[in-house]
């Protein structure tokens, strides 16, 4: 069997997750990692697979079927994805919701002009959560959709905590409010404020002699990050922090509460949820499955930029159409 | 706006659900219902829409974009769907899992030979549950998938109860076992027997003077239907039965428990669930959304038979591709 030849651009948590996910899919092989660092200092987990300079990637066009781009959404992907789409079929996890139309247009242009296929914003939100919103709203037009996130680590909020004076280490968990989720499930279609949907729980290691009350006050008052939420700040020891807050769990819920039938009185509830011990490993698994879809759709002649909405589920599976019908329908 | 012109073949609970679902989608209009009964005796809920003889359907080819076939899977659909696919683009909810490949082949042949597009086995299982199994297994290859059904009314089991001597009225609820679902959610990937996954709860109105112990024993011992399950039989009054057991709720859960990462030790959990106050109204809503997809895919020139696996989610939505990216991704 011909394997799908994958390149990884960017070798942080997400890139490493992609490397590990490829091992679980024996129709794929990893060709190399492309990094902005000195490749001599980048050691892969996979025996015999080299690291290359990102700037040399274009010389490898003939060796790679799909380039999975694992940079950050703030500054890396807006530049890297259109640039690499000139040379490769590409896929990314761009997650700045407000800038998706602009990113799509840039990637679509670069891919189309060079006869490549691209996919953007793959992961779980955007990604699987988006899919579930579209399926649920298309099937049940008269209703309300709710998205809850967590329990999970927010990198942005954790970074914000760590910028507070006197904070040595800090991490923030976004926690969905059970009472709000139960209200949604009851079918009353509540209007929920920001504060009612999620709370924020922080674990902080303070510097020696730091004023803990001042730290707590500064965190709780931080505009946009914390001021609209019920926030708890817990001070813990260095040892406890390292032992208990060293993973990146996340997850969440997409719920659609809707009415059907005569007089629209029948309550119908769709709920999708993820409980992830590792956010980057899961996002990587989504990217790898969609890399398979991309490879097949390209083989059918498609070019330009696509999203999860454009991908028929059969493209994701190792199984043939007949196997899917016989075993999975 | 040109509306999608829908016909309904078969006017039982599902057909009526389709009629009501069309009202929630103002890009569609109902042209007529086609019935094996005398149309003079069939009164629709929708003002001004006529009933026709099913045998006259082929005269209406030019008036209908999609025929939604609402017969039963045991004997109606295997005959009706290929027959109607000669004259129409068709969609059905065929749910006899073991016979799907055969049904697919028959419908595919009839549709292709006549330049029509068909979709089969749309609903929630098969249908949305099947989709969730494929998405989850494609993304997380190293894991186990579990499907639980209920709490909901099983027509087949309710029919079986009603055939027992001394039973005046009877209904059966399939109930998923909470402990089994919690074991799955914990990540231990349990092997679950039939008895461990679901229990069966029956409500029976006995004929005057009937031997209730004998009824209970006969129900509990019924081969395949009840003997492999923990079954409870509750005797209630006629009034209680009519007041509390007059709806068709259903639902269920698709769960994928899987491992990712270095050494495959990271637990990742995907869960999809439905809680439906009306099984036929929900199935009808799925059929109507997929009728929209079918209409669009036909407009692109596709013919033959498709399943949910072949339909990119964007086809289901009223929104344009650009609206979906801006608002739903």
Descriptive notes:
Two copies of one chain form a homodimer. Chain A has 329 residues and is α/β, with parallel strands linked by helices. Helix content of chain A is 34%, strand content 26%. Chain A has helices at 13-23, 76-85, 100-113, 128-139, 155-162, 178-185, 194-197, 212-221, 238-244, 279-299, 321-327, and strands at residues 4-9, 28-35, 51-53, 66-69, 90-92, 117-119, 143-149, 152-153, 167-176, 198-206, 230-235, 250-260, 266-276, 304-306. In chain A, the strands form three sheets. Chain A has a seven-stranded parallel β-sheet with strand order 3-2-1-4-5-6-14, sandwiched between helices. In chain A, helix 1 (13-23) packs across helix 10 and helix 2 (76-85) runs parallel beside helix 3. Chain A is globular, with a radius of gyration of 22 Å. The model of chain A has no long low-confidence stretch (mean pLDDT 97).
> Largest beta sheet of chain A, briefly?
7 strands, parallel
Helix and strand content put the structural class of chain A at: alpha/beta
**Quaternary structure type:** homodimer
| Spatial gap, N to C terminus of chain A | 26 Å
The sequence of SSEs of chain A as H and E is EHEEEHEHEHEEHEHHEHEHEEHEH
List low-pLDDT spans of chain A.
Answer: none
**Strand fraction of chain A:** 25-35%
- What share of residues of chain A is helical? 25-40%
Number of helices of chain A: 11
Biggest interface, residues from each chain? A-B, 68 and 68 residues
Find the count of extended strands of chain A (DSSP E, 2+ residues): 14
User: Roughly how many Å is the radius of gyration of chain A?
Assistant: 22 Å
The dominant shape of chain A is: globular
- Estimate the mean pLDDT confidence of chain A: 97
Main β-sheet, spatial strand arrangement of chain A: 3-2-1-4-5-6-14
């Amino acid at each position: 069997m011909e394997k799908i030849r994958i390149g990884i651009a960017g070798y942080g948590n997400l890139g490493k997750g992609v490397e590990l996910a490829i091992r679980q899919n024996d129709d794929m092989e990893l060709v190399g990692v492309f990094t902005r660092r000195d490749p001599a200092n980048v050691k892969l987990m996979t025996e015999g697979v080299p690291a290359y300079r990102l700037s040399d990637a274009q010389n490898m066009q003939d060796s790679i079927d799909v380039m999975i781009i694992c940079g950050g959404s703030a500054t890396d992907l807006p530049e890297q994805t259109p640039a690499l789409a000139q040379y490769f079929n590409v896929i990314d996890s761009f997650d700045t919701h407000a800038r998706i139309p602009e990113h799509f247009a840039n990637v679509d242009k670069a891919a189309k002009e060079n006869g490549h296929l691209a996919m953007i914003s793959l992961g779980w939100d955007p990604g699987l959560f988006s899919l579930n919103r579209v399926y649920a709203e298309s099937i049940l037009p008269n209703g309300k959709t709710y998205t809850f996130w967590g329990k999970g680590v927010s990198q942005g909020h954790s970074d914000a905590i760590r910028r507070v004076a006197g904070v040595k280490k800090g991490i923030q968990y976004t926690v969905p409010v059970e009472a709000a989720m139960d209200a949604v499930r009851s079918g009353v279609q509540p209007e929920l404020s920001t504060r009612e949907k999620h709370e924020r729980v922080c674990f902080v290691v303070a510097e020696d002699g730091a004023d803990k009350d001042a730290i707590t006050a500064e965190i709780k008052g931080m505009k946009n990050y914390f001021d609209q939420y019920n926030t708890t700040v817990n001070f813990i020891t260095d040892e406890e922090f390292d032992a208990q807050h060293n993973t990146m769990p996340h997850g969440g819920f997409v719920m659609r509460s809707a009415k059907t039938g005569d007089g629209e009185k029948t309550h119908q509830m769709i709920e999708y949820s993820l409980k992830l011990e590792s956010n980057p490993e899961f996002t990587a698994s989504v990217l790898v499955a969609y890399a398979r879809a991309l490879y097949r759709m390209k083989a059918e002649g498609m070019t330009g930029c696509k999203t999860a909405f454009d991908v028929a589920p059969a493209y994701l599976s190792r199984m043939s159409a007949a196997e899917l019908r016989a075993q999975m329908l």
